[in-house]
């Protein structure tokens, strides 16, 4: 006998109100799938829900022993944010890094400001506020020491965890005056003096040890899957195999016979749009996860697969190709591309296909929830604590203030863990178990079958070449289901923010440019993925640019620089980009000088133009992604059997000032590995509405033997007067086109669909 538990549906409006800015969706997708107007535009962190906070008393506390505790309000998933943001505070505080500890903030947007860790914006939004936090705390310590000594505050200097009275040389430790400092009113903002770059001890340096490094290496950290509470029970869930499907019948009699199984609970699903709601299904609750898994295997289930039961990704590709070959509404139109194309002496056409891909984080989703006294507490590996809080509160019918979200470390995120459906599942099952703590674990199969998948796309490009091989007209039709479909039922075609990722905002000096966006439906949950729509758009645009160079019999680098044209700063709105990653178009114009600069740097470091033996080649690609400029040069070796080796990758990154260079290099290296993985083997396919892949044997991730022998990251230096760019995502889109362009240089074979897999193997 199974227990039936019906969840409470969230309204689209209530959820969107709090999470509208996830992954850069700020004021972009409304409840009807349209761009939402704002009374007064706000940019950067100020434009995010919750805004920015820089209260020193909120983020810093100092014990009598002098240990400085700094709150990290963003989620750590390997990108180093639990080191980098506290490091900024510690530098301005002039604290000894060896005497700093970091604690993770609970999910509380009203208290900490925006905590959503998506969109490569943690540092670019929080660098200024965290500097202010550290400098304010430093001033308060200096003021407290001055009061203790009865001297003017100007005579006191904080230096390396000590307060020094400069005329007399007297010293106090930070812990000696911390209690007095904490009682002081916060000083006026204008009275707080920030350090000069020459005074930095940690910012811009490579010497700062990762705050979690030792604990991660020794296994003393807590990820979502590690949470254990007294009296906790364990759950796995059989979810509908097809998005939009629902349970028809269940026989749980055999499952209940499995040793350790306690109960079987039905979870009612949520009709589209998906939002961050659970998919529903049947949960098996047991004394341990293995028993729950075996109990799930014993369930006898039948499903009503619903409206997406016939979804076939191979057939859908044909639908997208047909749409891409027909005129559609223009989303950017400069000059008269169609007329010039019709008369061009030479016309080049190409179509590119990229399949769905799954996030496949090394740690699958996991969450624990417990309900006590009408309040719910959650422990989960989430990127979006506020969305988690709101989602759980909505499903339980609680006030947000009655939900506590404890953010654990994340074993990878890539955007998947900003959708907290798994946390809501744990909360609903705790309610079904009368408040007992319930841990929901997703197996790898669950993760791959029920992801918020990166969109599938067909990209069609056409260009007219004049007699000199110069591009006179450019047409790009980009065809893909939209992320907006998880927020608004029936939304189809790419939303403005998706189009502003390397489709409409291509800064080529071409007089006639037209970009169209044919509309197609979504048949599964579509979600943002590391670098989002830059991946398909940059693959197509950068591959096609190389094809045009080859058609013109020109060197690819020289031709690409000519396409970009002279150094200039372009207001994104001039390219029909009203989004610009949520940043001010005045502060963040698209700077083609910086775009040219990373191309020149990467190709120089890679030895572009050097003579290579047969079967080897260099490929180039460039991308403006998350307000950062990235160029990659990939060197490949393809043997007679079509096997690909990658001896070297050179990546030039211009992300503005380098706050933590070691983490910049690490993130770019990781993006390179991920980009190669997606290009070589990444594919999710659907048959009869269900995902065909299930684990890493058929949804492969890059193995160590296939990784590049060498990855060199070249960082463009900048002073603090240049605004910060993103780092976590921008490198990913450059890798697949650079790799495929290198394969063409080595073999003469053009790759226009991903993954590459066996395309180079000889029959």
From TrEMBL:
SUPFAM superfamilies linked: Molybdenum cofactor-binding domain (SSF56003)
PROSITE patterns linked: TAT
Residue stretches making up the Aldehyde oxidase/xanthine dehydrogenase a/b hammerhead domain: 218-307
Pfam assignment, any one: MoCoBD_2
Gene3D superfamilies in the record: Aldehyde oxidase/xanthine dehydrogenase, a/b hammerhead (3.90.1170.50), Aldehyde oxidase/xanthine dehydrogenase, molybdopterin binding domain (3.30.365.10)
SMART domains recorded: Ald_Xan_dh_C (SM01008)
Record PANTHER family: ALDEHYDE DEHYDROGENASE, BLR6219 PROTEIN
Protein name (record): Acylaldehyde oxidase
Organism: Herbaspirillum hiltneri N3
């Amino acid at each position: 006998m199974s227990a039936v538990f019906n969840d409470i549906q969230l309204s689209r409006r209530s959820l969107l109100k709090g999470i509208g800015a996830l992954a850069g969706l700020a004021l972009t997708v409304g409840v009807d799938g349209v761009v939402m107007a704002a009374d007064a535009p706000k940019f950067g962190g100020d434009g995010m829900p919750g805004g920015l906070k820089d209260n020193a008393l909120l983020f810093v506390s100092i014990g009598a022993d002098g240990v400085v505790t700094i709150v990290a309000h963003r989620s750590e998933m390997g990108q180093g944010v639990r080191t980098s943001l506290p490091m900024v505070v510690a530098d301005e505080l002039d604290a000894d890094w060896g005497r700093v500890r970091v604690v993770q903030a609970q999910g509380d947007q009203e208290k900490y400001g925006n905590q959503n860790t998506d969109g490569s914006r943690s540092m670019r939004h929080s660098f200024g506020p965290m500097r202010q936090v550290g400098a304010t705390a430093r001033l308060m310590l200096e003021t407290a020491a001055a009061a203790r000594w009865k001297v003017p505050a100007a005579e006191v200097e904080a230096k390396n965890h000590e307060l020094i009275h400069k005329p007399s040389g007297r010293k106090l430790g930070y812990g000696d005056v911390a209690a007095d400092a904490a009682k002081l009113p916060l000083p006026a903002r204008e009275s707080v003096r920030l350090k000069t770059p020459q005074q930095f001890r940690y910012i811009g340096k490579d010497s700062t040890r990762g705050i979690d490094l030792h604990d991660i290496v020794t296994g003393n950290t807590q990820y979502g899957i590690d949470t254990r509470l007294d009296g906790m029970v364990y759950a796995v869930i059989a979810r509908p195999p097809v998005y939009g499907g629902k349970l028809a019948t269940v026989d749980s009699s055999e499952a209940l016979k499995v040793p350790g199984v306690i109960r079987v609970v039905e979870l009612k699903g949520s009709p589209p749009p998906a939002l961050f709601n659970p998919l529903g299904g049947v949960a098996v609750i047991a004394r341990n996860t293995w028993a729950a898994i075996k109990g799930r295997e014993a369930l006898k289930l039948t499903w009503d697969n619903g409206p997406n039961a016939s979804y076939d990704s191979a057939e859908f590709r044909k639908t997208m190709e047909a749409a891409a070959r027909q005129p559609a509404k223009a989303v950017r139109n400069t000059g008269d591309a169609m007329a010039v194309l019709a008369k061009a002496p030479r016309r080049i056409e190409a179509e590119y296909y990229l399949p769905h891909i799954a996030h496949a984080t090394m740690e699958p989703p996991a969450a624990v929830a417990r309900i006590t006294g009408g309040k719910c507490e959650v422990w989960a590996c989430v990127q979006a604590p506020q969305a988690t809080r709101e989602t759980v509160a909505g499903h339980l019918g609680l006030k947000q203030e009655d939900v506590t979200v404890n953010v654990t470390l994340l074993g990878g995120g890539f955007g998947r863990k900003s959708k907290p459906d798994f946390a809501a599942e744990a909360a609903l099952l705790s309610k079904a178990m009368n408040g007992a703590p319930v841990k929901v674990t997703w197996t790898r199969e669950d993760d791959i079958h029920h992801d918020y998948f990166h969109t599938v796309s067909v990209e069609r490009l056409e260009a007219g070449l004049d007699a000199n091989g110069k591009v006179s007209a450019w047409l790009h039709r980009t065809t893909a289901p939209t992320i907006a479909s998880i927020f608004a039922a029936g939304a189809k075609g790419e939303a403005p923010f998706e189009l502003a990722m390397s489709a409409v905002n291509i800064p080529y000096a071409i007089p006639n440019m037209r970009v169209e966006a044919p509309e197609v439906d979504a048949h599964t949950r579509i979600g943002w993925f590391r670098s989002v729509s830059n991946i398909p758009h940059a693959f197509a645009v950068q591959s096609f640019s190389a094809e045009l160079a080859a058609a013109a019999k020109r060197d690819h680098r020289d031709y690409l620089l000519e396409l970009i044209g002279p150094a200039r700063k372009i207001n994104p709105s001039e390219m029909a980009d009203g989004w610009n990653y949520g940043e001010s178009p005045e502060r963040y114009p698209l700077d083609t000088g910086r775009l040219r600069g990373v191309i020149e740097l990467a190709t120089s470091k890679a030895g572009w133009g050097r003579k290579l033996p047969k079967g080897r080649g260099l490929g180039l690609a460039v991308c403006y992604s998350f307000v950062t400029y990235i160029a990659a040069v990939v060197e490949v070796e393809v043997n007679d059997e079509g096997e690909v080796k990658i001896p070297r990758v050179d990546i030039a990154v211009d992300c503005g000032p380098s706050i933590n260079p070691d983490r910049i290099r690490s993130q770019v290296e990781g993006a390179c590995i991920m980009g190669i993985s997606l290009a070589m083997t990444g594919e999710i396919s659907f048959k009869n509405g269900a995902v065909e892949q299930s684990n890493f044997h058929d949804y492969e991730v890059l193995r160590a033997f296939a990784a590049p022998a060498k990855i060199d990251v070249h960082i463009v230096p900048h002073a603090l007067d240049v605004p910060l760019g993103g780092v976590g995502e921008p490198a990913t889109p450059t890798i697949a086109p650079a790799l495929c362009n290198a394969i063409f240089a080595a073999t003469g074979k053009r790759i226009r669909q991903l993954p590459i897999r066996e395309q180079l193997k000889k029959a």
